[in-house]
Design a protein that fits this description.
alpha/beta; Rossmann fold; 2 domains; ten-stranded mixed sheet; globular
Length: 298
């Protein structure tokens, strides 16, 4: 499924702690791990530009110090450079041939994001590989034992919110390519949420809408069950607010991550047409495995 990880850390989000989980990542099928960190240059028009070499070297030393014993068969790199984080991450993906980016993003709303920016959401339109977004608060709260266990089960149980729209169909197709034969993932749960408040559903009984959705989802899933073995594939239908039901199902069904895709997240159009996927990225405490548009056309 995934073999080469690029972990982007600002060394305050806790993601550098994965350096103490190298054996567990290797046991999870990972063959290469690269840690990338950017040292920002202060904007100052007065005087000569600051020499950032000492800061770069200091951060390199700190990251190398975090690394635990590297198991045989696992490649590990540390990339620390001066410059903009987005540019360094994109270069790191190319240099290390990464197939998954792991990054941190705190919980916030759309307005806060527009006012103060978000490195992760700025990256999304430029990525050609999936990204797993994790909460720094969650990583900080894990004991090392808990983080090591999570490192072995990053993709074990994935919740896939589904609505029959093209981006989610493309995601399902992409997962159908990635999952067969993998040992990293054990179960995929497709979730369709019937929203009684949606205009298209008004005037129809919720139970009738649910029965129709269950039948449609069953027809979709049936031909995929054999394709994705040994991964178990099942479908759920719930009634209520989509965002609330998705987040509740992730907790109730013991998911390790939510997998989703959308072309609108972080774009100008999200101001006028709110993206459910964007809200999941901003509000979910579960890690979110997001597939940008560029990662679906494989």
């Amino acid at each position: 499924m995934f073999k080469s990880l690029l972990i982007a850390t600002d060394c305050r989000d806790g993601l550098q702690r994965f350096g103490k989980c190298l054996e567990e990542l290797y046991l999870n099928g990972i063959e290469r791990v690269a840690f990338v960190h950017s040292v920002a240059r202060q904007d100052d028009d007065i005087g000569l530009p600051e020499d950032l070499t000492p800061k770069v070297q200091a951060q390199q030393a700190r990251l190398h110090k975090v690394l635990s014993a590297v198991p045989a068969g696992l490649e590990v790199e540390v990339l620390v450079q001066a410059g903009k984080a987005v540019d360094l991450i994109l270069r790191g993906i190319q240099t290390c041939s990464s197939d998954l980016l792991i990054t941190g993003m705190g919980i916030h709303d759309l307005l806060t994001e527009k006012l103060f920016g978000s490195t992760t959401l700025e990256l999304l339109p430029k990525l050609t590989i999936p990204v797993m977004v994790m909460r720094p608060q969650l990583i900080a709260a894990f004991t090392l034992e808990e983080l090591r266990l999570r490192s072995r089960h990053l993709f074990r149980s994935l919740l896939v919110p589904f609505d029959f729209e093209e981006p989610r169909r493309q995601l399902l197709s992409r997962l159908g390519q990635l999952l067969p034969g993998t040992s990293q993932c054990q179960a995929i749960t497709l979730l369709y949420v019937v929203d009684p408040s949606a205009r298209r559903n008004q005037g129809s009984p919720a139970e009738e809408l649910k029965r129709r959705a269950e039948a449609d989802l069953a027809r979709l899933v049936e031909p995929l069950v054999e394709q994705v073995k040994p991964v178990q594939l099942r479908a759920l239908v719930r009634v209520g607010s989509p965002l609330q039901e998705i987040l509740a199902t992730a907790a109730d069904e013991d998911m390790t991550a939510i997998a989703t895709a959308s072309p609108r997240v972080g774009s100008f159009w999200e101001w006028s047409v709110r993206s459910l996927t964007g809200e999941i990225l901003r509000q979910s405490w579960h890690p979110v495995l997001f597939f940008p548009r560029g990662s679906l056309a494989q």
